[in-house]
Amino acid sequence: MSQASNPLLSTEELTFFKQYGYLIKRGVLSVDHCETLLDLMWTSAPDGIERDNPDTWGPIPETAHSSDATYVVSRNKWQYRSISTRPSVLRTMTEAPMWNWAEQLLGQRNVRTPTEHGLPMGHAGPAWPGGPVDPQLTEGARGIYATLPDTETASLPDQLHTDGHPFHFGAVCLLEDCPPDSGAFKVWPGSHRKFYPLFPMQYDQARIPFYEHLPSHKGIIHPEAYLEAVKAVESSTQPVDCWGSQGDVVLWHHRLGHMAGHHRGTEASIRQALLFDYNHVDLDRQRLDPPQENMWRDWSDAINAADANLSPEFLASQRVH
Question: What CATH code is carried by the domain that includes residue 57?
Fold first, then answer.
C-alpha cells in the first residue's frame, strides 16, 4: 500500500506534531491504492456528476441530494460512509506506515483495531448537531469525502471548529491531487494547546440530549472560554491549507482547530480524501479525565520525549513561516 520509505516518524516530526498539532506527510499512499479507493468512491457518484467531465463537477443538483447518514450529499459535498469498514478502506489504517505511526504516537499495542465489515459511520442515524448520534459510532474509518468546486463559497470567511467526539488523532488522506484553495483540510497551527485545557473532559465533550419536542437547544455544549479562544485564534493565527498530491496524508490532534477548506474552483478538481481516527484502547477511561497538566500523559514515551530543534526548512515544508 505504501510508497513511503521511512516507516517511522523522525524526532523532528514528532516534535512538530507536539508543538503545532498536525503533520503533513507526502507520498504516503501508493498510486494503485489511491486509485482503488477512487474507483470505489465513484461507484457512489451523485446523479449528474461524471468522473471524466469537469463541467459536471458541481454544484450538485438538489434532486441528487441525500440525507442518508451513510451517504450524505449536498450542494458541494458528498460523503460516502457506508464503505468505511470495507477491507480495502481499513488497509489504509492498519498497514505500514500508518499503523507504525499510530503506535509510535500512542504506544505499542495501544491502538484500537478497526473491525472489517463492522458498523460504518452513520449506521445509527445522523450525527450532531442535526441528529442524536455521535460520529464516534463507527467500527472503522469515517469514510471517503468529496468537496466540489463552488464559486459561492469563494467569499466566505474561514471558520474553525474542533471535533466533539472522543479520539486521539485523525488522518486525512488525499486520494487525488488537490491544488491550493480547492477544499483541502485547513488547520490552525498550535491551537490544540490552547483549546485542550478549556474543556471539562480531556477527550470528550458534554452534550444536550436531542428531543424532538424541544428543538431549540441540542448537541455539543461549548464552554464560554473555548468560544472566546476560537475568536482569538481566528484573529491571531494564520491557518495552513494542507493541499497536496495524491497519496499525501495529514495527521492531526483531536483538539486542533480545523475546517474543510472552501473549494474556490480556481482549478478543475474534486478534493477526494479518506478520513479516519485513531483511538487508544483505553480511551473509555481516559476521555472522562479532566485536562492534564501534561496533555500527552496518555500518549507514547516517544511523543513525550520529543524535543528536537525545528529547522527553517522543515517548518517551511509544513507551511509554517
Answer: 2.60.120.620
Query: Total domain count for the chain?
Result: 1
Q: List the domain range (segments joined by +) for residue 134.
A: 11-317
CB 117 within 8 A of CB 85: yes
Q: Are 20 and 248 in contact (CB under 8 A)?
A: no
What's the pLDDT tens digit per position in 166-223?
999 999 999 999 999 999 999 999 999 999 999 999 999 988 887 889 888 878 889 9
Burial class (CB in 10 A: 0-12, 13-18, 19+), 295: middle
In a domain, 6, yes or no: no
Residue type, 221: I
pTM for this one?
0.95
In a domain, 153, yes or no: yes
Strand order in the sheet with 71-73: 22-25, 249-253, 169-174, 271-278, 143-147, 77-80, 71-73, 66-68
CA 150 – CA 230 distance, rounded (Å): 26
